What we know:
Strand order of the largest sheet: 5-4-6-7-8
Low-confidence stretches: 91-98
Number of strands: 8
Order of helices and strands: EHHEEHHHHHHEHEHEHEEH
Strand content: 5-15%
Largest sheet: 5 strands, parallel
Structural class: alpha/beta
Radius of gyration: 20 Å
Helix content: 55-70%
Number of helices: 12
Distance between the termini: 54 Å
Shape: globular
Mean pLDDT: 87
Amino acid sequence: MKESARFNISAVEGDVGLSKDVLRVWERRYGFPTPERDANGERLYSAEQVKRLRLIKRLMDLGHRPGRLLTSPLKELEALSSTHKSAAAACDPEGSAGGVADLIQLIRQHDGAAYLHALQQQLARQGLRHFVQDTVTPLTVQVGTAWEEGRLHVFEEHLYTELTTRTLRQAIAAVPGGREPKVLLTTLPNERHGMGLLMVEAMLSLEGAQCISLGTQMPLMEIAQAAAAHRADVVALSFSSAFPARQVSDLVQQLRGALPRATQLWAGGAGVRKLAATPGVLVLATLDDAVEAVAQWRAR
Length: 300
């Protein structure tokens, strides 16, 4: 990204994941960001401000308050981000090493054919379960972090998503047809990230569940109607860290109220880690939790 580049508020909204209203409120309340104005009076944001906004958004997703972040110097924000990355590395010391780092490098080199070949080799070596847990999971985290910090371009993130999605879909299609429970998988409106959904589908399919994927961004009432039409035993939602955390609880409760009592509602992904306990909603913090949820459903 050229330092001299300027971006309008719509571009920043799509890039960073913060709404136009939030950007305007921050400008008035905290004095940041400080956009320039074009000939028509429209806001224009510098590349440096966009980079800082990405960092602030990432730290907010990790639980920090925007008021403190917006008044902190850039070096302090970077130090805070480094602290989180160090903690993550301590929990998963191999997450960014070896095969995952090599795969990310192929994306940076824009070598889609080599990336796809390496990914398929990794799948063949590990098997689908370990491929999802030990390769796709840390790879997705690393790609997301690199994008948020400006070390990976949007088109590179899209290349990763497209090729990884293709590999996972092919692998899931090779798993024998499932039985009960019948699980309907989707995301809510404004949640366009579908990688987590595919990862859960892979794990549930391996457990013998019958998975029906509706893709991403389904309206609430359409999900409820689809669950009734398919006679689904479970509706499983995925929330990425980019989904507005404050909206999750209310939307999940609305969907819970629209579903038949007998239909279970599961919610998983980075976006539900801080979701308060909600009656009738099972929170899946990890992929292993999804496997356990199938076992519990069958036990009941």
